[in-house]
Amino acid sequence: xxxxxxxxxxxxxxxxxxxxxxxMSSDERFQNLVLRPIIKLQNDLLVExxxxxIRKHKSxxxxxxxxxxxxxxxxxxxxxxxxxxxxxxxxxGQFTVEEYQIYIENSSALNKRMMNLVKDRLLSQIQLFDKxxxxxxx
Length: 138
What we know:
mainly alpha; 7 helices; elongated; 0% strand
């Protein structure tokens, strides 16, 4: 195993409870073995990126109800291509060469899975985006 590959795989957190079953699709296997650990590893960065996104959009997010905030997160990730591509790059940049070769075979379906995981992770931490004082630069 080359140094880059071993370094990348060694720093990924272990996801407990994610079992790999023989009848899993290759996309689901890739999601559980590669995407989930990378997204967990990149969590703090993804949160900061979204805080910046809120700030750049004049913090209108803070005027919304919880339900509208959740919709805002979903819409931003699904419709804002600049944000979406930035987040995808943060995840794809953590792939090994072998994982990237698997990814490019079915990138469309894997991108959908990737963005759904990111969306779910951000929604589960929506309280981190609650207060404007958390968004100010230190």
